[in-house]
Amino acid sequence: MDSIEFEDLQRRLQALEEENARLKALGAADQSLRRRAESALAESEERYRTLFNSIDEGFCIIEFFDGPHGPLSDYVHVEANPAYTQHAGIPNVVGQKVREMVPDEAGGWVELYRGVLLTGQPIRFERELVATGRHLELAAFRVEPASRKQVAVLFQDITPRKRAERALQQLNETLEARVVAALAERKLMADLVEGTDAFVQVVDPDFRWLAINGAAAREFHRIYGILPKVGDNMLELLEDQPEHRDAVRALWSRALAGEAFVEVAEFGAAGRARRFYEMRFNCLRDSNGRPLGAYQFSYDVTDRLKEQERLREAEEALRQSQKMEAVGQLTGGLAHDFNNLLTGIIGSLELLQIRLGQGRIKDIDRYVTAAQGAAKRAAALTHRLLAFSRRQTLDPRPTDLNRLVMGMEELVRRTVGPEIAVEVVTAGGMWATLIDASQLENALLNLCINARDAMPGGGRLTIETANRWLDEHAAAERDLSPGQYVSLCVTDTGVGMTPEVIARAFDPFFTTKPIGQGTGLGLSMVYGFVRQSGGQVRIYSEVGQGTTMCLYLPRHYGKEADKPSLPSTRQTVRSQASHTILIVDDEPSIRMLVADALEDIGFNVLEAHDGPTGLGILQTDAKIDLLVTDVGLPGGMNGRQLADAARTTRPALNVLFITGYAENAIIGNGQLAPGMQVLTKPFVVEALATRILDMIKDGTGRA
Fold first, then answer.
1. Does the structure show a pLDDT above 80 at 380?
2. pTM over 0.90
3. Of 370, 393, 630, 702, which has the fewest Cβ atoms less than 10 A away?
C-alpha cells in the first residue's frame, strides 16, 4: 500500500471515528431526554396516585366487555381508591365483575354506565346500592378514547342525608298526631307526678317554685306550717324560721349551681314531728344546656332508716355472738395446745432440776431436747396467730421465688409422700419480690399440705412461678392495684371446693377437716401474711377437678434478690471484749439471757429496762457498737423511737430489734433503714449470736 492510499485510509478512519462520536453524542442526548421523560411521567403518575388515594369521595374506573347477556353487557372494576369501600360498603372490588358483585341490580347499573360509554355524555344522579343499603350520589364520564371502553365514576355516601330527609318527611306527615300524643303524654306524666308519693319540686334561680306537686306542698305544710303554691319564694316563706331557711338555701344552691347529688337529712320545725328525707337534686336545663333552675325528688325514709338501724343492731349482735364463739374456739384450742406444750416444758425442767440435784446428768439431754421442742412448737403456734391477725413482725428482703421454690422442692416431696407426683415449673427472667422468705416458705409448705390432704388417693401437685403484669381490669378482679407482680401458685388434682367453701376458706377457725385434724388457722395465716406483705391470695377451684391457690406479690424494683443463705458451719468467734452492746428490754429474764449469751462470746454488755434509760446511756460518751432493743417498751418511748433518737447523735449506730409483736408502722412500713435488722421472738441464743456477729462484722468493726 502506497502512502497515498494509506493517508486516504487514515482520513476515512478518522471520518468514521468522528461519525461514531457524533452518533454516541446523539445517543447520549436521547438517553438523557428519555430519562427526563420517564422521570416526568413517574412524577405525574405519583401525583395522580396520591390524588387518587387521598380524595374523600369514592372513585373507580370500570371497563365494559361483551358478556353472556350481549355486547357491552358487563363491566369489571379495573381501578378503585380506598374511599370506595367507605362509601359503597364493598371491599376489594378491583377485578370484580358487576354481575358477580350485585347480580340482582347489575342490569340497572350497566344500563346507566353503558349510555355514558356510547354517547360520551357525562351524567350525575342519585341511586341506592341495594346490596349494602347505601344511598349514593354519583357522577360518571367516559375515559377517552372511546376505544378503551372505560367509564370513570365519582361518588359519595349520602345515606345519612336521605335518612334525615325521610325522617323530616315522616315528621311533617305525622306532626299533628305527634302533638296530640305529646299532649297526652304530658298529661299522663302530670297525673303520675301528681299522684306519686314522691315530693316533687322545681324552682328557678331566685328560689321561686316553677312547679310543686300536691304531696310536696302538703308535706311542706306539715313540716313548716305553710302551704306553698307555684310562684311563691321558698326563702321568703321561711323568713321567720332562719335555721330552716339557711338549710334549704344551702341544698338548693348546690343544685342551682349545676351539681347533681343525693342528700339524706332530717327536717322539721321545733315542736313538730321531724322526719328523715332522701332528696335527689339536679339542675334543670333547656335544650341548649343553659340552666333554668333546679328540681328535686324527695322521699320520706324515716321508717326505712329505722328498719336499717334495727337490722344493723341485729347484725352487730350476730357479729358479737360469732366473735364470742370464735374467741371461745380460740381460747379453748389455745388453752388445750398451750397446756400440752407447757406440760412438756415444765415437766422437762422439773425433771432436769431433780436429776441435777441427784447428780444424775446422764439423761438430762432428753429433758433439754423435750423442753426445746415444746417451746419451738409454742413459738410456731404464736407465729400462726400473729400471721392470722396480720400483726406479725416481718423481715422482708429481696427474694427470688425460683430459688425459694427450688430450695423447698425436696422438703415438699418428703412432706406430701410418694403417692403424689410433684412438679415444679419456674418462669424465666423472674422478677424479685420484697418478702419475708421464711414466712413465705411456711406459707408454701402449708398450701402443699392442704393440697396433699385434698388428694387422699394420690394425684399431682404443681408449684408454678410467673411474672404478672396486671392491668386495671385484672387488678380489680384480684383486689389489687394495677402494676407488676410475681405469682406463686399451688395446683392439685384433688376433690376441689364448692363456692360456699371458697367464700369461707380464709375465715379464722374454718376447716372442712374432722374435729381434731385441723385448727382452721392455716389458710387464714397464709392470707394474713400475704396481705400484710402487700399482696393477695386467690382460689380457683372446681368440685372434682382440683384447686389452684395463687399468691400475688408486688414486684421489687430495688437491688437483685438475695441468694438463699447456706447453712452456717462456722464456730462462734470470741470478740476479745472489743465491742460493746447495749440491751434495752423491759423483761429482766430476757435481758439476763441475752447478756449472759453475749458475755460468753466476749462482748461488753450494757443494760437498760426502758427507752428513756437506754437513751440516757446512748447520749453519754460510752463506746457502743450495737443497740439491741425490744420494740414495745414502757416509759413513753418505744424501740423504734429510741433507735431514731439515738441515730441523731450516733448516725452509724447499728440496731437490732427483737420483738414478738409489732405494727408494721413501728418498724417502718415493712422496710428497715440501713443498719437496722429485726429478730423475732422467741429465738434461740445461737441465732441471736450469729445475727449480732454478722451485724458487727458488716459495720465499722470486725468480730
1. no
2. no
3. 702
